[in-house]
Structure formats: structure tokens, C-alpha cells
Amino acid sequence: MPLEKEELLLYLDGCRVQLILMQSIFTVALPLLATVTTSTASLPFVNYKMQGPPPPVEPTTKQFSVIKEFDLVDEKKTAIREVAPEKPKEKRLICKGCNEYESTALAFFQERGIKDRNALATIMGNIRQESTFIPNICEGGSRTSWSNCGRGYGLIQWTSANRYYGLGDFAKKYGGSPSSLHTQLRYLTTEVQWQRIEDRMKTPGKSINRYMDYAYSWIGWGHHGARTSYAHDYASRLILVEV
Fold this sequence. Notes:
Elements: H1 2-42, E1 65-70, E2 78-83, E3 91-95, H2 100-111, H3 117-131, H4 146-149, H5 161-174, H6 181-188, H7 192-195, H8 198-202, H9 208-219, H10 227-237, E4 238-242
Helix pairs in contact: 3-9, 3-10, 5-6
């Protein structure tokens, strides 16, 4: 029995030594861990995966919708097909009873941003007075090519030398015939006379008479003729539709 008591005392002394050693270790280690943690937190964050060009951004709108079609006979059979989403409808003015050239011109000026009914009718009325929308008409009424006319040619009867020859130069530079409707529509929007009034024609809510005042500085007519009456006629035939 005395021997067992002595062994127990030795065992307890060993445990006490281990506890003292563990306490010393924690006393030294904990401040070091706190220092390392603080230093690590203060380091700048670097996401190495994001180095280089950023990943492509996924489009917010899907190009196609996925539709599942079920077989009514065999429910296990399904088919998946992609369907393009419907384009949003747009409101646009069309001309009731107008010919192809009139309708093309009307659509062209709307694409330019002119949306007001009276503004469009005024432009149409002036072109009708000048040429009845015949692009290869020469002053006096003959139908001929641009090179054979010499003056007063086309949709708005380009008469002065710089405007007449400007049409030919434009067609040569950008392609197309100076006697075609599309070339002449494109050319007239490049002229300074048109550019001076385009923003005014885009401003809605004016009367035909007011838009006609703007149009005078564009065309510079010597004879007013029936252009105002034509403008009112077009205004009565323009219909707003969804396309």
C-alpha cells in the first residue's frame, strides 16, 4: 500500500507539470495568433481568378424562348424548340391612297425622327408641288436622266448649280443613281438647307402653316402653288397604325 501511494503522488506531479507547460504554450501562442490574424486582415484582397479581362456579361434579354411540346398520346415523349420573341409593336403613320413613292418618302422621314402628322404632311405637300414625287422629272415636266436635265431636277427641283451638281456628286461618291428616289432622299438630308430645319420639323404640335414657314427656307420656292392645300390633304389621309 505505501508503494501505491507513492506512485499516485508521482503521477499527480507529472500531470501538474503538463498543465504548467500547456499554460505557458497558450500564453505565448495566443498573442502571436492575434498578430498574424490582424496582419492578414489588413492585406489587400486580390482575387487571382479575376485577373485579366472580365468575363462576358450575359444578355439581360433572351434571344429565344424555349417551348416544350408534349405528345398527347405518349406523355413520355416531349420536344423542345426555340421560338424568337415577338418584337414590340411600333406606332407609325401610313398614307391612305398614296402611291409607292409617296409611301416610301413618308416612311423615310419618319425614320429620320419626324413623327408629327402636320410636319410630315407639310414635307409631303412640298414634294408633291415640286415634282409630284417623280424623281427623274426635269423642270418643265419632261422625264429624263440627271445628266440630261441641267437644272430644276428631281424631287424638290434642285435648280441652283451647287445643289444640282451636288446631287450628282453625292450619287457618285456614295453609289446609286441621281435619278432614283432613294438617292435623292438621302441627298436632301445632307444639304445645309434641310439641316437647318430638321430639328424644327421634329418638334411636334405645330400647325401646317408654321411648318410651311420652316419649309420655305429648305426649298426656297418662287411660286407657292397648292403646296399648303396638298399638305392639308395629306394630313387628312395619314392614319396611325401599329406595325
